[in-house]
Amino acid sequence: MDWGMKNRLAQLIQPDGRCFFMPIDHGYFQGPTHCLEQPGDTVRPLLPYCDALFVTRGVLRACIDAVGAKPVILRVSGGTSMAGNDLAHEAVTTSISEIVRLNAAAVGLSVFVGSYYEHETLMNLAHLVNECEDYGIPVMAVTAVGREMEKRDARYLGLACRIAAELGARVVKTYWCPDFDKVVGGCPVPVVMAGGPKCETELEVFEFVYDGLQRGAIGINLGRNVWQSPQPVAMARALQAVIHEQATPKQALELFQASTKA
């Protein structure tokens, strides 16, 4: 692995081998998502607790301070919206020169395995890897399921993750599911967990994050369960403890509750 690739991955994955990515890219297909109407204001108090931001170029330029910024994973796929017919019909939206100009530590795009646009999104990934490897920039593949959340089982996610790794993704983002170790075990590159829909309780979040880490994930790429929480800073702090301090779900909940009373 070249020095540049190693250096960028080291910015994202901490010395303990774990990572906490904060996605605020939801607007690229959802528009002004609840609690993300003003992305800069939302994420600013959460930055001390995360290791990197997953963000589009537009929000990065308009809302994120360049001085003292966290490493950036640049969202580079899009072209669909919640108002359209098929969220899977994505293309690569950002050039390699733009990626370099924005000093991205990595890039991320979605693949929709099993969808009508499976081939197109997988080729998006392959072509992006071809370009980014020349510049030492890691690619994170997001195993998206669009509106079809019932696809989130170990067999499907294991298939999608393995294909993404085979095509050259350096990191794969996927959903936690029962038997998550089967997903991780079949993927030869690091796996991070997505949050999916907002959970009902804080403990639910801590439990699935903790379980996924025990089953081989290296961290999380979690947004809505943090910044849509009534106590987002306390939530971020507690998740940081699960990821980097080996806190159990019970300990994380106690930390969350103590933080909300402080």
SSE blueprint:
Layout (H helix, E strand, L loop, with lengths): L2 H10 L6 E5 L3 H4 L8 H5 L8 E5 H7 L8 E4 L1 E2 L12 E2 L3 H6 L4 E6 L6 H17 L4 E5 L10 H13 L4 E5 L4 H6 L5 E4 L7 H13 L4 E3 L2 H4 L4 H13 L4 H13 L1
Helix pairs in contact: 9-11, 9-12, 11-12
Structure overview:
This protein has 262 residues and is of the alpha/beta class. It has one domain: Aldolase class I (TIM Barrel, Alpha-Beta Barrel), CATH 3.20.20.70. It contains 12 helices and 10 strands. Helix 9 (202-214) packs parallel to helix 11, helix 9 runs antiparallel to helix 12 and helix 11 (232-244) runs antiparallel to helix 12. The protein is globular, with a radius of gyration of 17 Å. The chain starts with a helix and ends with a helix. The mean pLDDT is 95.
Tell me the major beta sheet: 8 strands, parallel, barrel
- In whole angstroms, the N-to-C terminal distance is 45 Å
CATH class: Alpha Beta
Q: Secondary-structure element order, as H and E? A: HEHHEHEEEHEHEHEHEHEHHH
Principal-axes shape call: globular
Compute the number of strand runs: 10
Summarize the amount of helix as a percent range.
40-55%
Report the total helices: 12
CATH superfamily: Aldolase class I
